[in-house]
Specification:
about 200 residues; mainly beta; four-stranded antiparallel sheet
């Protein structure tokens, strides 16, 4: 299987395909490089009978904020029609690392266009695409608690979190007390027994 659009990139113009993902908030991802493995072929799905080169482009888009985070494009080496299969590979390096963070949604948009090598006219598809980078786990926040009057006050570093409570640590049923809370969070001390608190994303 491969990503391929039924479009001749020489005679019909370039095509684009997208891969979408959403982070879970547990850490940041920094992307540095992309490797694209591809195949050139004809309109019938067979191997291409002529030497061809493909211009590949990759753009990273934060679809939550509708912001382009960076893009790169380059021409592949000429893929010889013989021997077959007509496979090629291209390594791309972003000019600066691209960081994906939070719980935002992202689009990896890949475009293919023909490089003028010999007679025009070629179809192409992606056999595989690999993104390289580093995953950084989010550090646990430092939590402080204090009592003022009849209130229990929670403070922490590290930005917004959900404040969750549970009356029994043997139970896995944690309830969200305050969603996407920014410290300090004040809780009224009640008379119905103690509660355990934790932060979650």
């Amino acid at each position: 299987d491969r990503i391929a659009v039924n479009n001749n990139v020489g005679n019909g113009g370039s095509w684009a395909a997208s891969i979408n993902t959403t982070l879970d908030g547990s850490g940041d991802v920094t992307l540095t490089d992309v490797t694209i493995g591809f195949r050139t072929y004809n309109a019938s799905g067979g191997y291409n009978g002529s030497d061809r080169a493909i211009n590949w482009g990759v753009e990273i888009i934060n679809t939550t904020s509708s912001t382009s985070l960076g893009s790169i494009s380059a021409d592949s080496a000429v893929v010889s029609a013989s021997p077959q299969p007509t496979d090629g590979s291209l390594d791309l390096t972003f000019s600066a690392p691209i960081t994906l963070s939070g719980t935002d949604a992202f689009e990896f948009r890949v475009t293919a266009a023909e490089v003028s090598t010999g007679s025009l006219g070629v179809h192409t598809g992606i056999n595989d695409i690999t993104f390289y980078g580093t995953v950084f786990s989010a550090e646990s926040p430092t939590i402080t608690a204090s009592v003022s009057g009849g209130s229990f006050i929670l403070e922490w570093d590290g930005g917004a979190h959900n404040v969750e409570t549970n009356a029994d640590l043997l139970s896995s049923e944690w309830a969200v007390s305050v969603s996407n809370a920014v410290p300090p969070v004040t809780n009224v001390i009640g008379g119905d027994g103690g509660l355990f608190y934790r932060l979650a994303r």
